[in-house]
Structure formats: structure tokens, C-alpha cells
Amino acid sequence: MTTTDGEDRIRRRPDDEEADIYDEDGNVRGDFLALVGAAIADRDTLFLRQNVARLHESEIGDLLEAIQPDQRLALVRLLGDDFDMTALTEVDEAIRREIVDQMPNAQIAAAIGELDSDDAVYILEDLDKEDREEILAQLPFTERVRLRRALDYPESSAGRRMQTEFVAVPPFWTVGQTIDYMRDEEDLPYSFSQIFVIDPTFKLLGAVDLDQILRTKRQTKIEQIMRETNHPVPAEMDQEEAAQLFEQYDLLSAAVVDENGRLVGVLTIDDVVDVIHEEADEDIKRLGGVGDEELSDNVLSTVRSRFLWLLINLGTAMLSASVIGLFDGSIEKMIALAVLMPIVASMGGNAGTQTMTVTVRALATRDLDIYNAGRIIRREAGVGVLNGIVFASIMGVIAGTWFHDYQLGGVIAAAMVINLMAAALAGILLPLLLDKMGADPAIASSVFVTTVTDCTGFFAFLGIATWWFGI
Amino acid sequence: MTTTDGEDRIRRRPDDEEADIYDEDGNVRGDFLALVGAAIADRDTLFLRQNVARLHESEIGDLLEAIQPDQRLALVRLLGDDFDMTALTEVDEAIRREIVDQMPNAQIAAAIGELDSDDAVYILEDLDKEDREEILAQLPFTERVRLRRALDYPESSAGRRMQTEFVAVPPFWTVGQTIDYMRDEEDLPYSFSQIFVIDPTFKLLGAVDLDQILRTKRQTKIEQIMRETNHPVPAEMDQEEAAQLFEQYDLLSAAVVDENGRLVGVLTIDDVVDVIHEEADEDIKRLGGVGDEELSDNVLSTVRSRFLWLLINLGTAMLSASVIGLFDGSIEKMIALAVLMPIVASMGGNAGTQTMTVTVRALATRDLDIYNAGRIIRREAGVGVLNGIVFASIMGVIAGTWFHDYQLGGVIAAAMVINLMAAALAGILLPLLLDKMGADPAIASSVFVTTVTDCTGFFAFLGIATWWFGI
């Protein structure tokens, strides 16, 4: 019964692949998960081959993440040679390791042979040295050399992400020759959007987009239509930098060259899109005070990745506590101060976070530079003053009414103005300072900003109160 | 003198365009800015034509953002017809409006005619209705119809972002016919990576990648090599959803179809990359409590965009203040409580933010769904307990030594454990709840989470202290 269900599932696929395994929220459909789970349980390889093996790599990836952890390896084993290793490039690192570590090297080698080099590298780089060597040893020579070359480049460099398969022709070829070559050549990349022009030593001379070739007469020489590639990517370039090149110049793919300007591979936009995602992820998580942890991490590694941040925060929290300690006498005489002081601090913390978020993001997207920094600082100061006045008045009235003491209202209002200005300045100056010092502003900004706003808030409020009421 | 400098600048451009206008930090070079500024001042159109007009659209965009606000319009005016309107798609919305609003509609219309439809729409959609109509009226009929069609689709829909220029052929054509057609056709899109196959009513039948055409014999029929496009994008689809399709299936471009499955345009990866950026930006800014404000916004609109958030925070801050108010008696008797209570609250706030950040991000990237939610919740609870115990012990010892009162140390330790668990649960449950309710978890999560941790922190600490010391 499952099998028939499976078969009409297949018949249904071409016309509505999307609707097939996902529900409207984009989650893998429950009934499909149940079917797969059952099939894994009774080792129904036929069903799995027919319904899972044929899915798109990213769909298999989502499926692997959705099923029970203990079912993952079983699924891969049952699919055997029908399992598309590319799917492993679509899952969390933790899940990938867990699966790859337990797959026999022979099977990995066999599968790797089928992959584009960039996907192969993506999987190989996670393996420990000896496993990797054992797998590489089992690959055909040219394949092995290509992958070694890519793996020799530093982690998260363009060289690691590049695809070593590409089409390159000499400048004196005609468009006709080039087209005929591509018609006859068996071993072309899986898909490509431009071809490269090189000299006999593989030095990169230029590139031609495929549409350019298609709109040109056969007898035209390649050198006549090739454009100098203004943005060849050095293999050592950091992937983030490469991604910025792609975004700025709307590239679909870019030549990757070694230190001698020789063409070694091609970087494609789909890899770059992944990079853009990773970078955004990093920024968000760092702002939130979590390292590069993944959803599939276990309790211990999660605790570890968050510990340092919390420890630092404990230190800064005690700093602001000791500021309060300076005024314990005043608080004893006027308990309302203890009740109101967190409000001043928390408003400052929020305003500061707002400014900091904008600053950090502007720095990440390079919208903020030395030329407009001055203007932005003035703007944020202005915002701080305005918000300060507004919320000072609101809070002043509330506090005054709450404790039937309008002098107290005046005190908290004054403290509020001071703290919101401090917040604005800390929110923009601290990230800029960290950036100047070469640190990533996203990492530490928020802890510093809130330290400033907490201490300033408590000190301003309690200090002014102590002075004004002479306590 | 500036001009000669300008000329050798031009001679320098082809081989190192990058190095040309940017310094190593990726900022527009100061000396270049100075030259441009001076040229604008003495209306040196020759220099500007030679050095600015030839830059890449995104470089002109960066330049417009880097120069003094009052110079921007002047630069555009001086460049006249040599100004590449596409550059306006690369600058902040505020700057784009400021420039476009002051350009004569005639000039805009002339420039718009030169643009790809997606760029034209990008600029037209910001204009107020009458200006837009006046400009459209000055465009050739077909152009006008195309743009109208795109503008009729809802904001930030695929239809708005699509390019209405594309190459489409009937299925019975041969590869040879297709190539010849592209060779002879004058009016092809600026660049494209696939051609579409349609029936006489423009119904989408399939697509063929250009590399596929190039590796196929001339006499082969298109229908033999075309693949059914599994992922045509409905014109009404939200651009974010469309972007997810691109990412999941590694698309370079996708057909955009109307409700009748008729091909109306093509969505390209470069637009999608921009969308991915906007979405990441949105998430980061919302988590930081700032609306979709831009760096070029002025003080007032910035104050406006942050006001609501601060107001809500004021409310929640007063809520936690009133929790403290419940225990003013205890604080009066034991002032140390006032000093220590912010530590408990702030640790909870940080731990909660950590969990919330991971949850919100996981929801945004669809990594978190009903199938693994249970596991993640258990993990976060575990993390909360572990961190709770660790920091409870640390804080207990510190507080005990600080105030020479180890009972107080025990009290704060207990409160810490409770608050870090509350933080973990709030951090994951609140975003999930908001998501279930169809709200964007990024928007309101952090204010709710910190409310929970502040109130829990103060209540647990002061409550336990009051009970334990019987005050």
C-alpha cells in the first residue's frame, strides 16, 4: 500500500514538486515524514528509492533534518548508492559530521566522485585528516589533484568554495569553434553561465557570457567579444570579501586565480548566496551573544558557546551593582529610589541597543564610513536628546504621581535625559571604536553599551537624588 | 590639472577597477571624493563625465552616498544624460527620493527608457502617482505597457521585482533556429542565462539553460532538451518566498507567471540577493528594536521609528519596578537586596536574549519546525539549568563574601537558577508563540523576554529573601 501511494506520489511530482513534500509553512509534510519513518523501520528500500532518492538535494537535506536523529544514518544506509551526497551540503554541520563519520570511506569515495568539486570539498573539509586521505587515495588521479588543490587553500577562502570544473578556450578560437567544442566535449561542468579565455599557461585573459556567444556570428573571434574580467577573485581571498564583489557588480560567476593570475576555478553565485546567509547569521547571533552554534548542537556544546558571554555580563552586572552600592545610604533613606532606578537603566539599555544595532549593521554593510560618521553621530546625539526629553517628561509625571513627590519626578527626568544621551553616544561610538581596533563590532558591542547605560543610569539617578535631597 | 589626473585615472581603470575608487577598507577613496567635490564646485562637467559617468552603477551609488548631501543633486545635474539612473537603485531610499523628486520628469522619462524594466520599476514605485503617470505617458507604448503591468503587482511581490524582457521560443523550433534568432534579434535582454519555451498564448511550457543549448546539435528540437520548470514564480508571490525558492533550488533565474500560467517576466538572482539582504537587515533591526529605518533618515523620522519601542519598554520597565515595589519593606530592612537585585535580572535578560536570538533566527531560516521544536525546547531547558547552577554557585560565593552573609549568597543563587530557567523557556516559547500567531517573532520577542526575566528575577530574589529572612 505504501508503495502504490509512493508511486502516485512520483507521478505527481513533476507538476508540483513544491506541494509534494512541504506543507504551506514550508515544513516537511507530516504524513510524508510518517511514511518515510515507517519505510525506514521496515527497511522498505523500494519505497525509499522511489520517493526519497528522487527528491532535490535540498529536499533530502530538509528530510534528514526533520526525521528522528537515529533514523538519519539508517536512511542513508538503506538508500545506498542512490543517496545523493550533495544533500549533506544542505544540512547542519553537526548532522553532516554525525552521518559522514559513520559512513564507510569506500562509499564516501564512490559518492564524492560523482559530485562537483565544490560540493566534494565542502564534505571533505569536515573529515579528520586520515579519513580524508584514505578517501582521496581512492579517487581517480585528476579528481584527486583538483580536490587537493582546493583543500590546500585556507578555510572559508574563495579557493575552498570554488568549483574546479570550468570551460576555458584560447582567444584565437572563433565562436563557431567554441560552440562545436562544447557540442563534442563530453566532460563539461554540470552547468555554467560563462566561459573563460586563457593563454597556453592558463593565465586568465578574459571571459565571455554564454548569451554573448549566442548572439554572435560563428566566424567572430573570441578575443573580439571577450571582456576583460575586472573582478577575478584571488583564491586566497576571504569568501566574505568575494561575496561583496558578487553583490556589488551583480556577478553570476567569477574566475578564481592563483597568485600568478592563472585560472584555477570558478566561484558561482549559489555558493555566494550561502556565504551571504552565513554572514548575516553570524552578525545576528553575535549581537545576541551566542557564538556560531547550530540548532543541532547538544546541551553541553551550547552551554560552552554561551558561557563566556554570560560570565562577562556577570562582571559588568556587578560593576553596575557596585555603583548602586555607593548610594546604599540614600536608598535606605528613600526606598523609592530602589524601585525607580531599574527604569532609568533599562530605558538607557534599550535606546543604546537601538543605536548600536543600526551602527553595527551599517558597518557590516559598509554603509557607514569616515565620510558620513560625523553626520550619523550628530544625528544619534539629536535622537538621544529628543527621546530623552520626551521620555523624561513622561516618566517625571508618572514617578511624581506614583510617589506623590514631584521633586523625585524631576530627578528621574534629569537622569533619563542624561542616560538616553549616554546611550546614543555609546551606541554609535563603541562599535566604531571596536571596528577601528579591528574587532568585529557585532561581538562585544551590546555588553559594553549596556554596561555604560546601566552604570550611567544608576549613577545619574542616585547621584542627582542624593545631591538634590541632600541625603 | 584635475583633468589630466582624471585622464590617467581613466587609463588606469580597466586593469584595476577595484583599486580605483575604493581604499582597502572598501570606502570611497578620500582623494577621489575631494577631486569630485572640487569638480562639482567648479562645474567641471568634463572631469565628471570622464571619471564618474564611466564608473559601475554601484560605484556611482556609493559615491552619491559618500559626497555631501547638497552635492548629490548637483552631480546628477552636471552629468545630465551621462548619468546612469541605475545608480539610483544602489542608494538608500531616502537619498533616491531626494534626488528623483527634484529631477525634471522629462529627464527621468528619457533615462527610464534606457533601463531594464526591473530597475525602472524600482525607481518609479517610489514616485507619487501623478509624477509616475506623467513619466509613463512620455514612454513608448510597449515600454509603458510593460512597466504598468509590473507596477500593478503588489509591493515587494515577484511581479514588482521581475524583468519583463526575456527570450521565449516555441517548442518546435530547433536549437539552430533558436541560435540564429538570437544572432539576428536586435532587442535582446541586457543579459540572460536561460530562455523560455511558450505556446502561442504565452503559456509557459519549459525552459532551457544556455549551456544546454550550446552543448546540443543544431537540428535538435527545443522540446527535446527543455526541462519542465518546476518552480515558476507566481507574480503575486512575496519576494521573500521567491527568494527562498531561489536559495533552495539554486536557481539563477526563474520564470514569473500570471494567474493563468502565462509568462510575464523573469526574476533574476541579483534581485534575489538584494532581497536576501533586505530580509536579514529587517531581522537584525527588528531584534534591535528599530523599524526599517535607513542610515540617511533624519533625526525626526528616526525618533519616530524608535519611539513606540521605547514606549513599550517604559511600560514593561514600570511593571518590573512595581514588582520591586511589592518588597520595598524588605529592601528597607536589608539594603543589600537593592544592590544585588539588578544582577539577577540582567543575567536572566542576557540568557533569555541568547536563546531568543537562536530561536528567532531558526524560525526565519525555517530550521525550526514542529518536528524538532520539542527537542530544542528540552535542550534550552537543559542549558538553562546548567548555566543556572554554574552562575548560581559563582554568584552565591561572590555575594556571600561581598556582604559577609552566606545565607544571602544562597538566596541569590536560588533566584539565579529560577531566573535562568525562566529565561530559557521564555526565550524559546515566546518567539514560537508569536510565530504561531502569525506575528514576526523578530519584532516583539526581546521586549517580552526581558519583561519575563526582569519580573521573574526581581520577584524570585526579593520573594525568597523576604521568606527566608522572614522580613
From TrEMBL, chains A, B:
The keyword Secreted does not apply. GO terms for molecular function: magnesium ion transmembrane transporter activity; metal ion binding. PROSITE patterns: CBS. It is found in: Cell membrane; Membrane. The chain crosses the membrane at residues 307-327, 385-404, 410-434, 446-469. GO terms for cellular component: plasma membrane. Homodimer. Acts as a magnesium transporter. This is Magnesium transporter MgtE.
